[in-house]
Amino acid sequence: MEIEDITLETIAEKMPFFLEYWPFIITGIVCLLAGFVLFKTALESPGEESLPPEPDLLDELDDLEDEMDLEAEETENNEQIVPALPIDLKHIPLSYTKISPEESLKRTEEFFKLMSNRRTVRFFSPEPVPVEIIRNIIMTAGTAPSGAHTEPWTYVLVSDPKMKQKIRDIVENEERINYERRMGDTWVTDLKPLKTDWEKEYLTTAPYLILVFKQMYGFKENGLKKTHYYNEMSVAIAAGILLTAIHNAGLVSLTSTPLNCGPALRVLLDRPSNEKLTLLLPVGYPAEDATVPDLTRKPLEEILVEI
């Protein structure tokens, strides 16, 4: 039998299979081609349009899994649902001293003058700062309001030079990829006037690094997961108070959100899986020759709507 006859015979034998399953075969081929195109696109540098790097997929999946676990636990243990706080929580009189409108106005003016001098600083002095000052600053941040008083924040204070170097290595490795591939020409161009790039010398120069983690959930006394309501907003409010307390103490900082570094830094700092990095702040005194961009803030009429 000729080779051509064998081929035709084989096709004839397989024809019923192809006729019955051709939609699935075509779909599989299309999916395979689409996957190849997406993979190739991911390896290429982005175009001129500036888009933020996509969040770490595993991190996002962890968040989704945690939410599903919480819902499942609440459903399974519906009969055991009790408040996270004591059911007989005592309420006490508010500690409050009223001041005159004149004193209030004076305080707001003085506080605005203080805070209007707050600047983001990228040039730090290695001069040490008493750790008690930093601890007081973090305690102040801990006074922030939170959903159902869950206080969903953890502050990791790093002063060890070797650990700071490890953190810098992780951040710079990811930031270099961000600047060269992920961020796009427009974003990188917009950052040039601020004189920032992937090198982060301040991470090892500043005497302290404060890493702010949000706790996506906690644990009840019975071991079940405890929902942390509005954890993102709660930690954001606390971060604002943290920055205010740093400036009030006569120190400077830089609000750094290291893209794609969260999982690696969480593992490095031995933080549990229910925590996610939201902010990294070098804190200390400014270098003697420190400079900042000559920027102005929006006037009141551009940020306030009175009705």
TrEMBL record:
Signal sequence, renumbered to the chain: none
Gene3D superfamilies linked: NADH Oxidase
A molecular-function term among this protein's GO annotations: ribonucleotide binding
Domain of life, source organism: Eukaryota
Recorded coiled-coil stretches: 54-81
Transmembrane segments: 21-39
Keyword set, alphabetical order: Coiled coil, Flavoprotein, FMN, Membrane, Oxidoreductase, Transmembrane, Transmembrane helix
The keyword Isomerase appears for this protein: no
Names of required cofactors: FMN
InterPro entries per UniProt: Nitroreductase (IPR029479), Nitroreductase-like (IPR000415), Nitroreductase/BluB (IPR050627)
Gene Ontology biological process terms in this record: tyrosine metabolic process
Keyword hit for Transmembrane: yes
Residue stretches making up the Nitroreductase domain: 116-285
An annotated GO cellular component: plasma membrane
Family: Belongs to the nitroreductase family.
Protein name per Swiss-Prot or TrEMBL: Nitroreductase domain-containing protein
Species assigned in the record: Rhynocoris fuscipes
